[in-house]
Amino acid sequence: MRTITSIRITSVLVAALLLSGCAQQQLVKADKAYERMAYADATLGYEKVMQRSDERSVALRLADSYRALNKTDKAAQWYAYADRMNPLNGAEALAYGRTLQSLGRIAGAADLFQRVIAESPEDAVVRELGLAIADRDAFFEDTTLFTITPLNISGVTSAFSAIPYGNRIMFAGEREADASKANPWNGASFLDLYTASGGVDGNRVAEAVPGEVNGRFHDGPAVITSDGRTMYFTRSDYYKFRLNKDDASTSHLMLYRAERQADGSWGQLHSFAYNGMDFSAGHAALSKDGQVLYYISDMPGGMGGTDIYACERTEEGWGYPRNLGPTINTSANEMFPTVSGDTLFFSSNGHRSLGGLDIFHTTQVDGEWSKPVNMNYPINSTFDDFSLALLPGGRSGYLSSNRTGSDRIHSFQAHDPTLILAASFVDEETGRPMTDVEVRMLRPTEPEPLQLFTEEDGSIEIPLSVDGLYRLQGSKDGVFTESRDVSTVGQRTSRTYTEEFRMKRVVMDKPILIENIYYDYDRWDIRPDAAIELDKVARLFMDNPNLSFELGSHTDSRATDLYNLVLSDARAQSAVDYLIRKGVDPNRLTYKGYGERKLVNRCTDGVECTEDEHQANRRTEFKVTRIRVAPEVSEQR
Fold first, then answer.
1. Widest CA span of the chain, in angstroms?
2. Is residue 13 over pLDDT 50?
3. Beta strand pairing status for 495-503 and 192-196?
4. With contact defined as beta carbons under 8 Å apart, do 281 and 300 qualify?
5. Is residue 504 a contact partner of residue 515, using CB atoms and an 8 Å limit?
6. Residue 250 — very low, low, confident or very high, per pLDDT cuts 50/70/90?
7. Which structural domains are found in the chain, ordered by start?
8. Which side of the chain, N or C, has fewer Cβ within a 10 Å radius?
């Protein structure tokens, strides 16, 4: 009996040891795949390990591997698994947060970013991620500005970084590959450069770029000089069939130059002068005149991650690379620069973004780069968006994104923002809508004004154009004509401009208070705050050329009656002089000082009042003194 029991116990122990040894073998194999960035193989190995064990470190590597393969759902599952075992922090929490952000799980991402910020409050990138979550609606401020359409390209499984190439496009792409020739990262082919043109049905067929540019390992993306004769492209550091690696067994990317041959192929390859054995260089872009080469690198001395650098052309070749500085570069990754005119486009996951890499633009002014502007949705998504290239005219182009699951080229078309002027006209006395107001819209570029009448609710709506200057004028018998200026200059998102006209009825000799026209004690000069209101009065007077006006000025009760009459007269004249300088016809203006005879409150002589109460009496009013009726035109018979 004891013998049978011993045999059973021994069998269980042997089985456990065999399973443990098998799991350990799988782990070693998966770790090796992970270290050489063969993430497709690593996920298979780690999945098998996790079926037999419960190791947090393995779950994290499995999550990292799925994230590298853009399988964010699975990455999130394994990050969550590891987080339940022991809360993630630092880089692991940041990676989990970015993954949730890509999946649109904003609350979870926000919690993780706050966790990292609490640990590293000085980390600018994490702070920007937190702010992006808090102000997420800003990315969707206007979703009508672009139409995004994915391109159908047969012959490749993924494609990105398209540039115009005659009537075709050139891009970097992957295709299906035999296991012996596959990229261990994801099991597809290594990148090659392709061209494609549009077919009748909108489908494009990828054709490999001929010549020496496509080799055994990665080749692409590329940029071509304006004369079409020289190409700068990114490729793996390799010789024939062998990747070159540094002391840490890492193979880096390098920039190469190729020349277009007479038969249309590309050859005569030359290595970029500032390539390195222990850092990468790639993603070239050229200024319009070809005198500045932009590219990315993680060379020592940068801001962190990959930075954008610039080299200026000299007689000897390209000058030494200059980092574009902290306005553009962050401690995360800035990548895929492109240039259109004076504008630099690039992608970053270090600036405030919707998720993953977002596309930004910046302009150099007096040698300094402006603060990068996020191009918002739909140009950007919660996934990686990069390599924006404008076509001539600047209204359309290409961008790359993995928002559909894999890297894919999308075309985009820009649209003008929708700009609307919505104005309402109400009776100032009753507050009721004023119907049948004649509304005229004047624009300097148009010879004739647009003319229409308000609806029953006293409103009108008028579409506006981009970068327009408009003057809106409303008039009706028995009320003051009023006008407002509206400018759409610089408005790049859709907007409704609202204007409310509170129409005043014209009543002879009825004083109308000019709001906020006050004077300092014992002074008659026009204060800056008063000038703002007098500018409005000048506009009103010029809008009503058939009316004449008196400006009356009043003082408080301090000082003698005579002194106050003189002072108020000076104040009224000062206001009239200001209006004349603004263009009002002096023949339509008179002025009068009333001194302290028409106080608006209790502050008469001998009554103690506050300075604010006294100031209420130091005011200016206007009233209509004459209405000129236009002569009737007799009908000729």
1. 137
2. no
3. unpaired
4. no
5. no
6. confident
7. 2-140 (1.25.40.10), 220-414 (2.120.10.30), 419-503 (2.60.40.10), 512-627 (3.30.1330.60)
8. C
Between 457 and 22, name the one with better pLDDT.
457
Q: Name the region of 124 (left: φ>0; alpha: ψ -120 to 50; beta: rest).
A: alpha
SS3 category, 564: helix
Orientation of helix 90-102 relative to helix 106-119, angle to 10°: 160
Give Cα separations from 478 to 102, 267, 428, 481, 603 (angstroms): 61, 82, 13, 9, 36
Q: What is the mean pLDDT of residues 321-347?
A: 96
Task: Tell me which residue has tokens 């194999």.
Answer: 29
For the chain, what is the total number of helices (H) and then of strands (E)? 10, 37
What's the mean pLDDT in 323-338?
Answer: 97
DSSP per-residue string spanning 109-158: HHHHHHHHHHH-TT-HHHHHHHHHHHTGGGGGS-TTSEEEEE-EEET-SE
Q: Given a cut of 70, is residue 518 above it in pLDDT?
A: no
Residues 76-129: pLDDT tens digits?
A: 999 999 999 999 999 999 999 999 999 999 999 999 999 999 999 988 998 999
Higher-pLDDT residue of 338, 619: 338
Instruction: Tally the residues of the chain.
Output: 637
Percent of the chain predicted with pLDDT > 70:
93
Distances, alpha carbon 33 to alpha carbons 136, 176, 182, 183, in Å: 37, 20, 14, 12
First to last CA, the chain: 137
